[in-house]
């Protein structure tokens, strides 16, 4: 089940909210846990067993870490943390990377690993990271051990951010799991954020996705330079509105239930460098890798060769986290190289350039990165990148480019404007009374238009669903 579906909007969500708010406070986590499991098991009930295993391992290991530390047995505590990390990574490796590795080895003449055709459990990349960080934080003293298994299970299975983030660390929700507050103002704010995310996903991402699909499926012989750039601009906006829209919906749902989640995007396409881009894009993932991989490796307080190694490891991991395919690893290393170059010398020169040139620099390299990210087949990727740089077999432009530009021009323009903080700035400048009048009208319009689209449309992909 996804948030941008009629079943979720008009069946699951109303039932959850009604049951949640008629339940006494002390039982609300138990009720929420039940609905979390229904949400996760909607499409694949058997994978609930995997989630139960993850909950059991990290719950018991958190207890074990606490017990060892209380007895002064730091070695035992570290072994418990290591055991938890190994289990979570093994779980993620088996379901996400086994077949990828088996097929890669077979391709080079080493077919000793069987291809199992394993179906990827929804959201496994997100919830394994969340549960793994819990045990580490208990060991570090950054989070207390949760002894109530219902409360801990509610954290792991929390449906608003279960399948696509933001990646929430236990220490960020510890107090909220047991002492969260509820108010009409908070609920109303949640509805507003949710509808904004829904509109971004349904009205913008879905429509832009159809343009990208047309260019991705286009034969190499027909691809033009202008068309390749138009397609990748469409994909860049689709991915942003798809993922940030889903994050907004998650944050909005959390507020409806009394939770406050961390933001996941902060207008990344206004960045003036790649370094700034990654401070604004998928911020919860960047924070996770910084806290649990980059800093433990030594961070930037090491020699230059070791710093290069640390950055390469972190960005290789960031790339492969996104998917079991070589293009994701290349995509991660592509950013590693750009960030290393910026860190060692380029940033100081970039800052001397006019702001417009800084923006163009960042946007250019980000758009190139999305071509690597989006096209998994190497031969097609090479042809697509070549087309972007003037080596298109179809020439500079063709009638199809003009047709798609006319058909999607308005949607692209709206998407470009909506990816900037202009709207938010104008909204803040309005006086309070006009805002009070306009807000419910805009929220209702967003819900109605999104619903109308979902009723009529058959195209409703979710790009991060597979992660």
Automatic annotation (TrEMBL):
Q: Which InterPro entries match?
A: Ac/AlaTfrase_AlgI/DltB, AlgI, MB_O-acyltransferase, MBOAT_fam
- Keywords, comma-separated and alphabetical: Acyltransferase, Cell membrane, Membrane, Transferase, Transmembrane, Transmembrane helix
How does the entry describe its membrane topology? Answer: Multi-pass membrane protein
Subcellular location field: Cell membrane
Membrane-crossing ranges are 7-27, 77-98, 104-129, 149-168, 226-246, 307-324, 330-350, 362-383, 403-424, 436-455
Q: Which family does the UniProt entry place this protein in? A: Belongs to the membrane-bound acyltransferase family.
The record ties this protein, via PANTHER family, to: ACYLTRANSFERASE (PTHR13285), PROTEIN-CYSTEINE N-PALMITOYLTRANSFERASE RASP (PTHR13285:SF18)
Q: What is this protein called?
A: MBOAT family protein
Q: Which organism is it from?
A: Pseudoflavonifractor gallinarum
